[in-house]
Amino acid sequence: MIGYLGSLAVLLVTSFWSLGELSGEIQRTATLDNFRTLAEEPVYRDVAFRTIGIAAAVTVTDALLAFPLAFFMAKVAGPRSRGLLVVAVMVPLWSAYLVKAYAWRTILSADGPLNWALAPFGLDGPGYGLVAVWLVMSYLWLPYMVIPIYAGLDRISDSLLNASEDLRARPTYTFRRVILPLAFPAVVAGSIFTFSLTLGDFIAPSLVGSGDQFIGTVVYSTITTNLPLAAAFATVPIAVMVVYLLGARRLGAFEHV
Amino acid sequence: MRDQTHPARTAWLVVAGLLAFMILLAGCGDDDDGGGGTAAELQNVGQPEGQLNLIAWAGYVEDGSTDPSVDWVTGFERQTGCQVNVKIGNTSDEMVQLMRTGQYDGVSASGDATLRLIEGDDVEPVNTDLVSNYEDVFPGLKEQPYNSVDGQMYGIPHGRGANLLMYNMDVVRPAPGESWSVVFDPRQASQYSGKVTAYDSPIYIADAALYLKTHQPDLGIEDPYELDQRQFDAAIDLLKQQRESIGEYWSDYTKQIQSFANGDTVVGTTWPYQYLTLKAEGRPVNAVYASEEGATGWSDTWMLSSEARNPNCMYLWMNHIIDPRVNAQVAEWFGEAPANEKACQFTENRDHCDEYDAAGRRYLDDLFYWKTPLADCGDDRGEVCQDYNAWVQGWTEVKG
Fold first, then answer.
1. B263 chain-A contacts, CB cut-off 8 A
2. What is the ipTM of this complex?
3. Which domains occur in chain B, in start order?
4. Hey, are the CB atoms on A111 and B97 less than 8 Å from each other?
């Protein structure tokens, strides 16, 4: 715990330092220059908004994909198939991140399987770029969304659904007024994973991103040349996540942890 | 059961503690003053320590794992007992950062890293008397501004070469002439939009400046690393324009090789190593030296870390890597001009040194070798040039 928070503290302190001219060595005198640069140069704003936008898109996508799957697993599937489905959802987590990211790089490449599959329809895959980043991240973090929602839905007693049916509520009404409110905290809990993981990622964007910069890639490339500026920029996702977590707590995501 | 110890208060205590810790750290700071140290150099090579930790460019330290027949490390390990561990650096910035950790004994530094390392006291002077092969190094590589200070050598030259323009012969037609226009002229680059590549490092700004040196002479660019505000802004604008055609930037050589092989990239700057690898795979690529504008390049120097734990092994390595036979192998494998004159007799291709202009008579002495941009323009303009920090920020702006 101390190591974790201590390293965060060191990061924050570094963001107030600056660089010497030729050597590029760090001058340990406090200055707000780095934050001024972040505020004045439009590129950092663009990168931050782009990253937050993709993180939001990935979160929404994963929520939409995970919910039906989790519902099926929790409420519809029989005990054996439920077990198999849980394993099936978890299996991608067993393989290394890099393997999956590189696999997608191959799939999306110009000669890759995706373009090959779409060719008979006269279509073209997205290639590398923002769409590819969104696609790959949605794939990578989907299990992290499925499992919390599955746990949340599992907690909803079947008797509630039966009662709703007995009171002659239609399925959509039951879904809207019974299931969704009860499962929403679980969705928010899952979204914390997808949002924060997307916010900081730099490997997927550098493999399938075609040069678009994200917070992670800017920090990664700046860290070797201007550590204080990279540290300053790294405080942006920290601030975003603090706000997000406060909101998630308000929405009850931490109730049953 | 609700936690009785007021979690909110605990949280605030933790934050307060962190703030106090931060202020403490910020308070006890010390300024770092640079200046090339006058550290004493080694007087004789002692017993090898048994280990050697190197930072190197791809293809410089081959131990048979890439290709079993390409190995100049195992023999060295057997002879000296120094086990070689190598970390590949993709850019000079990475190498400088790695050197600063103090965990490595040496690095194959290009000119845009060397002065930063010297200035930051990360490397120490090299006693060339201890390196017997040094006397056979081409004179054009000795006591250069990028590897020495006041006549004191700070490393052993490794070899040098030019950044090449590589293109897919099946896609890029007609074949581009010996010019960078195909990647910088918007009319030409846009034909291959989404499939152009460029080197992902701030030092690439010099390539844009070099292009403008020929194509916008009224800017008055002489040295592409000494750019005042007006020249710098023009180079950045050119790069932002190029950005629209760029598919992806490359710094990892394996990704570039894969990208050209897949057809995701069809034209862009590269090192001879990738070109030779793709050619060996039978890919339809060709690479040219852009004689119209000239090219940037690298002249690499093996430098000894000031915190080296295995300096004796490092000296033995520096002598080994410029041994004529070894230097010849490296030069042919990577595709560069060797540092040791005698290496030219040992290359498998008898004409290697001619093709790569090792003696520097055709173009190699006129190459614009990577060097660190400084505020001091080095001419009568004074200190108005953009320093490397400005280049780094400019590069972030270019990528957008």
1. 109-111
2. 0.80
3. 51-160+299-362 (3.40.190.10), 164-294+373-399 (3.40.190.10)
4. no
